[in-house]
Structure to design on (467 residues):
């Protein structure tokens, strides 16, 4: 899992780049997200495994970036023209929350369970909203043909599965190493599922 | 206070499994709902299409019935009355000639009216179609047309018995479409020659209508015009496809492909 999952990111990236011309603007946000996730993962591995340095500060940065990029994805999906001010300001609010959390509550050298849980909650709400939107608008359209359905499902299933892990991560860290390893392997499986659904989404981008 | 001894690891595991199962079920039920909604909508669209096809069929059928009735009345009543008049004129020609010096001119005039009435009656309801089949009717149509017009109309049957084997509705639909096409050619094409040809292509019976008129730009075909709409409606009713090939100065070729 430690090698397969980080490498599996290449699969959606490959199909995303291959069908780049046919991918819509929302799907490009996911491409950026994958690129950022891949780079942070690589850097984390170099720092953690290679240099034996605490790489958790990267997670704090990644959390804010991840929220921003996924929010962009939903922004393009929900609002064709005018984006409400509140939606525009959401990444800024979240960034401030992350900074306050890192300064006053959870140091950058510990797992940022508050920010990640809050992020997961927000993203899950947006994902459910998207389902509601397509259920209301396109009752007769085959949704499985839409790339956005698969991209959204990837995000929704990953964050739903990992939500509890984000909340209780610090408790798990405090427990046995075996338990920690099992839980994070399950997390890796969820990531893999998300990447596979992203891959399907990018394949569906091809007209 | 009672000490909590629950294993946090197991609780997290259960919580993760629970939320993941909920989310997966949500997606699954969403997909099922969508599929059902799609099937319902498709069924509704199909029913609507069927209904409008039925309406169209009924409209065309009542139009045909009306034409048949008018054609029969013209032939049986007006035609018979004119024939009687012609006979009376023939019998009393001497007496009439003595009182009216223009009388000799009446007979050809009446003959002319009789012919016109017969032509109109036949055009409204081709009597030979049911009795002798489409091939005979089209030959007759050509003969009538060629005696009266400046355009030459020819009919070629390369499909043998397949033409007369067509069912009544299809034969009538093709006859009406040909009438419409010929009428269009007369009105707009300034053509000298029209050819109607039946042939077999890949086991399909194909009717090719062509003229050597001035043609028109293919993209200017008005499918909204009554003529074109009639043609399309009638051919749809008998499950036939058609293509129109035309360009300025090159006449027109309409290919009607009937299902096997």
């Amino acid at each position: 899992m430690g090698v397969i999952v980080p490498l599996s990111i290449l699969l959606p990236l490959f199909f995303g780049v291959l069908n780049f011309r046919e991918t819509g603007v929302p799907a490009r946000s996911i491409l950026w997200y994958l690129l950022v996730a891949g780079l942070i993962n690589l850097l984390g591995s170099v720092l953690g495994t290679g240099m034996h340095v605490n790489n958790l500060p990267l997670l704090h940065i990644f959390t804010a970036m991840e929220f921003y990029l996924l929010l962009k994805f939903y922004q393009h999906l929900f609002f064709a023209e005018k984006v409400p001010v509140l939606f525009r300001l959401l990444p800024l609010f979240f960034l401030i929350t992350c900074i306050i959390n890192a300064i006053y509550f959870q140091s950058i050298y510990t797992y940022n369970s508050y920010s990640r849980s809050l992020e997961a909650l927000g993203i899950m709400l947006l994902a459910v909203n998207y389902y509601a939107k397509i259920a209301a608008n396109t009752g007769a359209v085959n949704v499985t043909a839409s790339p956005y359905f698969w991209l959204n499902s990837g995000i929704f299933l990953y964050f739903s599965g990992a939500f509890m892990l984000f909340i209780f991560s610090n408790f798990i860290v405090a427990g046995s190493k075996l338990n920690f390893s099992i839980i994070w392997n399950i997390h890796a499986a969820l990531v893999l599922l998300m990447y596979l659904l992203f891959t399907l989404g990018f394949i569906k981008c091809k007209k | 206070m009672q000490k909590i001894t629950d294993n946090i690891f197991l609780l997290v595991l259960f919580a993760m499994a629970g939320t993941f199962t909920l989310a997966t079920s949500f997606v699954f039920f969403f997909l099922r709902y969508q599929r059902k909604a799609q099937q319902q909508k498709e069924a509704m669209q199909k029913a609507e299409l069927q209904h409008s096809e039925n309406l169209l069929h009924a409209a065309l059928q009542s139009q045909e019935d009306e034409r048949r009735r008018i054609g029969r009345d013209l032939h049986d009543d007006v035609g018979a009355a004119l024939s009687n008049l012609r006979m009376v004129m023939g019998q009393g020609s001497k007496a009439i000639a003595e009182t009216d010096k223009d009388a000799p001119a009446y007979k050809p005039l009446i003959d002319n009216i009789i012919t016109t009435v017969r032509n109109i009656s036949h055009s409204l309801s081709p009597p030979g179609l049911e009795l002798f089949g489409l091939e005979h009717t089209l030959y007759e149509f050509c003969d009538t047309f060629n005696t009266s017009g400046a355009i030459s109309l020819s009919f070629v049957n390369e499909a043998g018995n397949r033409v007369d084997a067509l069912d009544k509705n299809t034969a009538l639909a093709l006859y009406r479409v040909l009438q419409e096409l010929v009428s269009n050619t007369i009105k707009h094409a300034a053509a000298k020659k029209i050819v109607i040809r039946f042939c077999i292509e890949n086991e399909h019976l194909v009717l090719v209508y062509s003229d050597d008129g001035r043609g028109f730009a293919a993209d200017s075909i008005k499918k909204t015009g009554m003529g074109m709409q009639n043609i399309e409606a009638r051919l749809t009713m008998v499950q036939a496809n058609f293509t129109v090939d035309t360009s300025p100065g090159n006449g027109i070729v309409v290919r009607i492909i009937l299902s096997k």
